[in-house]
Amino acid sequence: MSLWLPNWAIDRWRRQGSRKQRPFDDTPFVLAATIGNRRLVTAADAEAQAMGIAPGMALTDARALHPALAVAESDPARDRAALARLAAWCGRYSPWTAPHGGDGVWLDITGCAHLRGGESALAAELIERLARQGIAGRAAIADTPGAAWAMACGSGAATVVVPEGGARQALAALPVDALRLDPAAIAELGRLGLRRIGDLYAMPRAALAARFGERLAHRLDQALGLAAEPLSPLPPAPARWARRRFAEPIGTAEDIAAATRELLARLCRSLADEMLGARRLVLTLYRVDGTSETASIGTARPSRDPGHLLRLFEERLTTLDPGLGIEDMLLAAPMVETLAALQLGFAHRLQSARRSPSPPFRAEKGWDEVGGACRVWRVRAGARWLPPPHLTSPPPGAEREKKKGRRNLDTLDDTSLAMLVDRLANRLGSAALGCFVPRESHLPERSSHFAPVFAPAAVAAWEKPWQRPIRLLPRPEPVEAVAPVPDDPPVRFRWRRVMHRVRRADGPERIVGEWWRGAADAAELRDYYCVEDETGRRFWLYRAGLYRPEMAPRWFLHGLFA
Amino acid sequence: MVEVGKNDQLAALRRRLAALEGVGRATSGALPFGVLAIDDALTCGGLRLGALHEVAGAGPDEEDGAVAAAFLAGILARLRPPLPVLWCLAAGDLYGPGLAARGLGPERVILARASGDQEMLWAMEEGLKSPALAAVIGEIEALPLTASRRLQLAAESSGVTAFALRRWHSGERAARQRAAPNAAVTRWRVAALPGDLKTDEPGIGRPRWQVELWRCRGGIPASWTVEACDATGHVSLAAELGDRPLAPARVA
User: Fold this and answer.
1) Which of B110, B201, B210 should we substitute to test contact with A (largest number of A Cβ atoms within 10 Å)?
2) By the CB < 8 Å criterion, does A561 face chain B?
3) Whether residue A360 has a cis bond before it, omega within 30° of 0
4) CA A110, CA A122: separation in Å to the nearest integer?
5) Superfamily for B25-243?
6) pTM for the complete prediction?
């Protein structure tokens, strides 16, 4: 079956708007693109087409026909992506679907039609469902993809079913445009008076091929079923979920944890096949009374380690209420990211070998004389193998070496760090976790920025200014300060109701706002002083604005030194 | 013979006590301050790694924790440098460039904002279980004995060093909790000292601190006047120390 969407770009554009009010529903509407140095109409809706505006027309000509024309920029990439999604949606009718060109979908419905009550019923249902979504479409069912496409485009009817073996007859009346030829060939055929496909049947093949190339004959053969035309269907969407139904409802925390473990193991295996890792997992528990509970976790780095993910779930599982019992559990990974297979480090192998010394391998460790490094000897169970005596007793100092080596190896991969971040973020909230990221700004509150832990590396570097406080108040606090001399540090100031007498001071360091950010920033001017009071505490004060005799200066405390 | 027997018994008892206290246990080593006087006072030649330490400010700085944070930043700067540290805090007033000035690269710091002491203790303990960290710091108000023992045990088993940076938000609470016992191996109090006014150098110069080790398991409490950490995180003894009596302890 071939599905042709005559106005796909327009329909897709309008579908972006809200369901209630589609944009430009009441005015003629076209999509335009700049091709070369001309603005051309690429798609026009039915109203615009009724006025004589057709794709390929210059936009100025179209505006001359209808000055109030609504125009939007065309976006072929998104059209194609949306078409691929539509093809995937068509999977409800057939497992083999593929987008075709910019405005069509192939469906191989062999063996599927009886599920929807026959071929014509299937085509009608498809067109009706599309119409309900605001997509105009025409469907044709024929023996070959070429014939189906020709019927969909050329017949003018919403649904056509060509009976088996009737393609030759059905196609005869259609214009040659329906053969998927390039415009030059169609124009050439038109000049010779060959307007219908039926006209071509009588022509000798050799002459056709000589005049119009192999392509025309090939397309004709494909339409009539004389040449094969394979479809390349969309790959099936992989299952990123795992489900478990229970014959008897479960209710205890242990059962739920065990089932979660099993689901995680299954899901992680399928993720591993796709080289993916989960960023978010949602576990839904369906209770016998028809209600459900969900628990979701997120990870900072993609992960498919069942143990780690289970640990993240454990916190949540205790808060879930099983009610009268749970009969169905669904674990889905709505957010995944690529995660390449990992080369396990030496330390991992060592640890796993220690953890499972069971057959068929028994792990032995020994000490390499040369490097002092730890080695794992894998010995088949049953075979008697004794390490040489110098390998059984570690050389002096080896214990320390081992500790040091292990530590370094562990830190080479940051998976354990990612796991820690996940555990913390799942309890404290991901917004509560972060790190300092430098920004290129001289304003103190802007130069350091709180960012997620595994954010992409910062572009700016930490500059080392000569004096920066260790604590920066979230916002500068106004203080009452007395500074007898302009442009001098204050001699005393009152902060949080405590008077501080300044003994020594440094400054000023003038920091000016970033004028390119706006008027408020452009007016910002601060003279920072580092002052020490009589008890030795050090503060970072600033005077806002330049000193003006007619105005009392405003002082703020911004940070604390040590 | 009897004497020898007694000595043996005493030595055995000492060993047992040490094992109970975790002092003699083979831990991941120690981090020396690089100042002979301080390192001598500590039992293992420096700050023991894989243990819980407590640092508090003094006077009004008990609330702000600025000097304590700077003292800690200097220690962390030298503590297994490329590894990250987890800094759990309640208020978001820690400033990255300020840490950088003490030698602690801000990119090493992972911040975790915890809403209460319970969350904070949980986050610290989770951090202490992770071998990917160099240290875990918690800006904590109340540190009960049980919680501190849990932290100490977690630190011992993983080798990650724990620091409790005490910050009290009212003088009353500070008075109640300042001297309350906990399982920290060392307890420090750091106070800012006023600079020397006799010099006529311009500016305010390097700050000076009164560093007081007021509780040290297996060691003797002591106090030093030091010059604040430099850009590599090292403190040094104040130069005038030999010429005059020790400054009166401001924090007692």
Assistant:
1) B110
2) yes
3) yes
4) 12
5) P-loop containing nucleotide triphosphate hydrolases (3.40.50.300)
6) 0.61
